Amino acid sequence: MYPQASQAEWENRCLKQYGLRVGIGRPDEIIRLINEAIAKSPYYGTEFFDVVQVYDPQIPSRVTVGINRLHIYLTDTARKTLLATYTYREVGAWSSNDERFAMKIGSMVGGQRFIADTTQVTRWQTFLFSFFFPPNKQETVGRART
After folding, report:
1. Within 13 Å of residue 67, how many CA atoms lie on the same side as its CB?
2. For 33-145, where are the E strands, in sequence order?
């Protein structure tokens, strides 16, 4: 998928890709600059799940779902193309069992359903839950007011 290259060649490619100059400083400074540039990407921190979509005939059966702090991405696994991007505001509901994950996108009446079979349901649900309810909010859920 990616051509073989030495570490120096990869560093130069990364620097050039993000508009940084080669030979700008110490290796740790270069790594810091590259990480700062990559962190600005909308795909930064995305966790990917290969699933079998079982509901919508308009979507390929094998898709990769990417989840990060901003969006949920559906990509065609075979063609490596982006099919859809959803914000968390667009997710109306989700549910799961041991092998299947279902998501309702849009309004509860006219929204789109996405249902997928995966062995990673628990991991997927934990990951989504962490974005809907960040840790500082999870601590207060269920506590009685005093």
Report:
1. 17
2. 47-53, 62-67, 71-76, 81-87, 91-96, 100-105, 112-117
18 shares its domain with 59: no
Domain ranges, residue 17:
7-39
Angle between helices 7-17 and 27-39 (to 10 degrees): 50
Burial of 68 (0-12, 13-18, 19+ CB in 10 A): middle
pLDDT tens, per residue, the chain with 146 residues: 456 778 778 777 776 776 666 555 667 777 787 788 778 888 888 889 999 999 999 999 999 999 888 889 999 999 989 999 998 888 888 888 888 888 888 766 777 888 899 888 888 888 777 777 666 544 444 444 44
- Same domain? 54 vs 74: yes
Residue 91 is assigned to a structural domain of this protein? yes
Q: What is the pTM of this model?
A: 0.67
Measured CA to CA, the distance from residue 12 to residue 7 in angstroms comes to 9
